[in-house]
């Protein structure tokens, strides 16, 4: 297949997965809702330095993604499209960065496939258009590492300075992790290559440090000026050091947590990842230095976050970029199309079996999960089984590796967005519709009980109280908590209910005929 044709398919994959599906679902909770509400409250507070969430200080992330979301909403209005657009653009630039870097190092066809593998990978599709900081951060990490490697290869200082600049923007997006990954990768690379002197000379490049400080320092100083030690404790000590030190917000896992995350997250290209591991030694004959550099990059991220006390699936994505390039290099070595497709085939079979498994094991789940599953049941219909069955069938046959890769990639894009749309009916859509109900009926105050859904604040354009409800309160809660209250039902959908608390009914004494006669 010609490179021109492949470029068209790459363009279509980006267009569909990153842009045409931007408004397919409402904002998901927790992260999308939290970032979007923090952006809304910047306008509410007329404060574009310090972010707040539901009226409380939010030190989770630095400022850059909020600024970009704010600019986008000024242009396009405060909606899902505008809030997600900065991430989609960042993911597009990330994909293009992979393309141009791989083309420079290898050839155009490898470059196209490396980018296509990135665009159509399951886990990338989840973050690429989400209204969160991760797409932007991964773009800056990728650009800083590409610039650093080109500098190591060509010894032109402008690339080293570019790397400092991208690290500065990454530091303004998510903090120290943007420094850690390039620094640790280069240190280990220099250790192996025995180039310590050059490493320290480059790390302490005065021009590079000045560029980094010009980009990153002003906001940090402004934030410290506004919030003082609360910022230092909240951001650096709690959100960064504590995340590695301890299990933060119950996000914990074993040492092997990221193994299944990678195997699933790289679908439908898991077989290419396994091929890379198997062929790693032979890959060094292709481009020895980058294979070493990129492998250190991936394995450092994998090892560091495996040892971290706090584990979240998207952390390991920081090391995915070189994997997509390695996948393109081993792609031509694939001999069996069936084995190439097998992980994706198993994934589709799992989705086909899932409704029956959930139905047969419904009694084993807690009340909340049962309600969520019952909400999904209507979507396990003829179309669901028909379309997944069709995808399963076309994934089995042989067409040639290039055509097969296009089938797998576009099938993954469809499944990701289709299943995401189905899942949205459990919590995302009900929360948005509850907020619309509140606005339509001019309800001025809502209490949130046993829920953390900041997207409600976004759509209702209000702050909520989180406490135990009192008589007369309008309350957003889980349907499984309704039994705790005497209430008037205002809205109910999926796992969400909006109610008005009524006084508890007094228990009447039984009628006593003798007592009544004496009275």
Produce the secondary structure layout.
Elements: H1 3-20, H2 31-45, E1 52-53, E2 56-57, H3 64-76, H4 80-105, H5 108-120, H6 122-128, H7 134-154, H8 157-174, H9 177-193, H10 196-203, H11 206-227, H12 229-245, H13 258-265, H14 270-283, H15 288-307, H16 321-331, H17 337-360, H18 367-376, H19 382-396, H20 401-424, H21 428-440, E3 447-448, H22 454-460, E4 465-466, E5 474-478, E6 487-493, E7 496-501, H23 513-518
Helix pairs in contact: 1-5, 1-20, 2-3, 2-22, 3-4, 4-5, 4-7, 5-16, 5-20, 7-8, 7-9, 8-9, 8-11, 9-10, 9-15, 14-16, 15-16, 17-19, 19-20, 21-22
Q: Profile the largest sheet.
A: 5 strands, mixed
Order of helices and strands: HHEEHHHHHHHHHHHHHHHHHHHEHEEEEH
What Rg do the Cα atoms give? 26 Å
Shape: globular
Structural class by secondary-structure content: mainly alpha
- Order of strands, widest sheet: 4-3-5-7-6
Low-confidence stretches: 513-519
Task: Walk me through what this model shows.
The chain has 519 residues and is mainly alpha-helical. Among the domains are: 133-245, no CATH class; 247-333, no CATH class; 342-358 and 366-424; 445-501, no CATH class. It has 23 helices and seven strands. Strand 1 and strand 2 form a beta hairpin. The longest helix has 26 residues, at 80-105. It is globular and about 80 Å long. 42% of the residues are buried. Mean pLDDT is 92; it is low at 513-519.
